[in-house]
Inverse folding.
């Protein structure tokens, strides 16, 4: 919960924004998750964030963040991929509003808990 | 239950041929096995070990209708299977494990504060959002204090229950040692 709170505050761009966000931090865990989803849905990167969450949720086995970067870069009809197509790892974490973490050791990207 | 079976097989490449065949059968058919099939497969895998320990982490996140059933099914599988559960202390869970010994784990204010400090400080691999928040907090002491105070207050009273379901776990595992250094925020 402390993690999600920090991630919520980190989406703000100014000190006053952070202060306002502090006032409305939910006190219940479920509300905290709801707030994170709402934050995702209010941004321009909503579609990409939802693709990240979908890949993590539906993949048959856990994916490393590199595998996920490649999966996200695939678009219909493409025949070749260059590294310029890959989205930055930290950016992927930011747009998912704290719901996603990358394990330092295994480099697995997964859903955060509590 | 399918997930537990999957974990046992994935971590131990020597899964029995019959279980491998079972998994392949359902994968090829693109169909989900029934609970009874899964329980049977799990049972045959567990029989291959003298003792098996399962930790069901965050039982409260399992849909309410299935919590009791999951535990009951697992408990009935084998007497060599030892179960331990963690959960938020919700009424339903407390009711379900009434009378069971348990350990209440709380993050102290100091733990939470340390965590916040580490998130606001400079670390490798930080995201842009994190770096910016860290800078805002560094430039503005008052803001930093407000962040710490609010989050410490909000997380206070949040605890996790550790419930050794099988007697064996309750008696043989020195719980404080198991938990050493694993405070949950």
């Amino acid at each position: 919960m402390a993690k999600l709170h920090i991630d919520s505050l980190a989406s703000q761009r100014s000190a006053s924004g952070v202060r306002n966000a502090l006032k409305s931090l939910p006190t219940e865990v479920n509300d905290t998750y709801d707030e994170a989803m709402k934050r995702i849905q209010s941004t321009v990167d909503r579609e990409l964030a939802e693709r990240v969450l979908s890949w993590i949720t539906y993949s048959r086995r856990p994916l490393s963040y590199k595998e996920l970067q490649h999966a996200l870069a695939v678009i219909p009809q493409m025949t070749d991929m260059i590294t310029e197509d890959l989205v930055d790892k930290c950016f992927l974490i930011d747009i998912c509003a704290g719901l996603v973490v990358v394990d330092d050791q295994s480099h697995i990207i997964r859903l955060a808990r509590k | 239950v399918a997930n537990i079976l999957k974990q046992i097989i994935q971590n131990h490449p020597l899964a029995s041929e019959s279980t491998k065949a079972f998994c392949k059968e359902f994968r090829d058919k693109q169909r989900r096995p029934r609970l009874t099939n899964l329980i049977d497969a799990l049972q045959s895998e567990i029989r291959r070990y003298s003792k098996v320990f399962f930790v069901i982490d965050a039982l409260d996140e399992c849909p309410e209708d299935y919590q009791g059933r999951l535990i009951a099914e697992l408990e009935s599988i084998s007497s060599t299977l030892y179960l331990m559960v963690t959960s938020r202390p919700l009424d339903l869970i407390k009711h379900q494990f009434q009378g069971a010994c348990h350990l209440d784990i709380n993050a102290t204010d100091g733990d939470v504060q340390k965590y916040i400090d580490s998130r606001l400080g400079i670390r490798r691999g930080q995201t842009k959002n994190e770096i910016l928040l860290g800078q805002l907090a560094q430039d503005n002491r008052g803001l930093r204090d407000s962040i710490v105070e609010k989050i410490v207050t909000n997380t206070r009273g949040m605890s996790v229950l550790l419930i050794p379901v099988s007697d064996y776990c309750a008696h043989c595992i020195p719980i404080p040692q198991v938990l050493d250094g694993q405070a949950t925020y």
Notes: Chain B touches chain A at residues 10, 58, 61, 88, 107, 112, 115-116, 119-120, 125-130, 132-133, 136, 139-140, 143, 146-147, 150-151, 154-155, 158, 184-185 (CB under 8 Å). The CA atoms of residues 140 and 151 of chain B lie 17 Å apart.
